[in-house]
Amino acid sequence: MRRLRNVKIVATLGPASNDYKTIRALFEAGADVFRLNMSHGDHADIRARHEIIRQIEKDTGRPIAILADLQGPKLRVGTFRNGEEDLQDGQKFRLDLDKSEGDATRVCLPHREIFDALEPGASLLVNDGKIRLKVDDCGSDFADCTVIAGGTISDRKGVNVPDVVLPLAALSEKDRKDLEFVCQLGIDWLALSFVQRSADVEEGRALAAGRAAIMSKIEKPAAVKAFDSILAASDGIMVARGDLGVELPVQNVPPIQKRLVRACRAAAKPVIVATQMLESMIESPMPTRAEVSDVATAIYEGADAVMLSAESAAGSYPIEAVTTMNNVAIEVESDPLYREVIEATRAGLKETIADAIVSAAREIAETTDIKAICCYSQSGTTALLTARERPRVPIIALTSKVGTARRLALTWGMHCVMTGEVERFKMAVVNAARAARTEGFASEADHIVVTAGIPFNHPGSTNILRVAPCEERLIFSTDPE
Q: Is 84-160 a domain of CATH 3.40.50.720?
């Protein structure tokens, strides 16, 4: 099944997309990656969805990526005697460790770590930032605050602390159990929530032990500040704009998104733009024009993937949401301005032989009548470097490792094909030509570019390029081996 666009679509599964028929329809509508949200559903639910995805993969013959998104530590207030209270602008309000029910003057915040990190003048945000508190005085078990923006506060509402790096691990005890469970299931990407520093990523990587690629969610100001080191430690990045928009002024989020996407592209690491992309489609069969523009902006920036959350997990129109995102992507990528923007923002890095090889492959493909760039890649490195170039022709990634094919399904422009192991470059070329013909990218009269690393099975060793005919007879007759 060949997609008619390069950007990938991530669809979150949930109550609205919980059976074979619906998930298969989501895949056929355009979903390339399925997200399993560990904040919702028990392990039995997650296992059932995982099995359905793998059955669809088997039935369609296309590698499908599965992304498990860990919940991360959740900071919440306690409960209120009346269930809720109205806070007025300018009033005083206390947060403390007293577990008794709250009232209009105070409530429990059962997280000593927050009090240890707070300083006078810091901000506390409650209920997705709808209520804003400023810390006047604080100690190891309390924070006396002034209400800056009031509203209704109720039981167990979430708390954000944007001004400080919290002494909290990114992985809670629940996260550790969930991580082990999904890694044993066989997921492809593991998304880490609450990342504040590169050490959080390294902790997740150590626990995953090579069983899944690590994706860091950038959702806190501390992560934005430490982004370079977090990117270096990660296999991919998710720009989680929902929490960023709570903890930062909303006008700061678009330039941050643009900057992070560009940095990921330069590093040849996949980047997902996520949260509230088509949110109105939770209840409406049609998106707003602003939402369509938002999706289009991420695509123009060259993001590897755009993500649906509640739209596909709990909304009334999950298939329509994926279809809409697919149609927007096709339209944007057919715009001549899209290519101008993509090429103007290409990093142009040529620091290694591999960089030079993939750059040359793109230039050859774009200046001659080449139908596809075929990357023979066991680890995925060659394919990722090729995708960084954002070529005008399709990219076919050939690998004998199903894990590599699945992980690459998240990457921009990547059409993944399973193939047998090879030891000689000649057979890699033969396999590439067959794949290009079989998958509908080229005919026997066409030519392709083939890249690989020799010797095979050495990550990052991309060092050979060949322009090859798609007719097997010609491959063998022109190859001196």
A: no
Tokens of 459: 């990550």
C-beta of residue 12 within 8 angstroms of C-beta of residue 322: no
In angstroms, the CA 381 to CA 411 distance is: 11
Where would I find the beta strands (DSSP E) of 291-427?
305-308, 370-376, 395-399, 414-418
For residue 86, the tally of other CB atoms under 10 A from its CB is 10
Token pair for 437: 């013909």
What does the DSSP 8-state code read for residue 250? G
pTM score, whole prediction: 0.94
Lookup result for tokens 């997309």: 17
Which class is 353-478 in CATH?
A: alpha beta
Q: Residue 460 has which token pair? A: 């990052």
Helix (H) or strand (E) holding 152: strand 151-154
Q: Which single residue is written with the structure tokens 């209840």?
A: 283
Fold equal for 8-72+169-335 and 84-160: no
Lookup result for tokens 């755009």 = 306
Q: Coil, strand, or helix at residue 301?
A: coil
CA 406/CA 110 separation, integer angstroms: 41
| Domain range summary for the chain, segments of one domain joined by + | 8-72+169-335, 84-160, 353-478
> What is the Cα–Cα distance from 409 to 405, expressed in whole angstroms?
6
Nearest to 413 by CA among 258, 339, 304, 262: 304
Whole-number Å distance between alpha carbons of 290 and 251:
15
What pLDDT shows up at residue 238? 98
CATH superfamily of 8-72+169-335: Phosphoenolpyruvate-binding domains (3.20.20.60)
| β-bridge pairing 159-160 and 123-126 | antiparallel
pLDDT value for 169: 86
Please give the Cα distance from 477 to 473 (Å, whole number). Answer: 6
Catalytic residue annotation: 35, 76, 217, 275
User: Cα separation of 201 and 206, whole Å?
Assistant: 9
Kindly give the residue spans of alpha helices, DSSP state H, lying in 85-145.
Answer: 112-117
Give the count of beta carbons closer than 10 Å to the beta carbon of residue 262. Answer: 16
Can you give the pLDDT at residue 461?
Answer: 74
What is the spatial distance between Cα 239 and Cα 294, in angstroms, rounded to a whole number? 13
Cα(348)–Cα(356) distance, integer angstroms: 10
Rg, Å, the chain Cα set: 24
On whether the CB atoms of residues 156 and 127 are closer than 8 A, the answer is no
Positions in the chain short of pLDDT 50: none
How is residue 80 annotated by DSSP? Answer: B
User: From CA 371, how far away is CA 109, in angstroms rounded?
Assistant: 60
User: Could you give the maximum distance between any two Cα atoms of the chain, in Å?
Assistant: 85
pLDDT value of position 151: 95
Angle at Cα 437 formed by Cα 434 and Cα 443, nearest 5°? 125
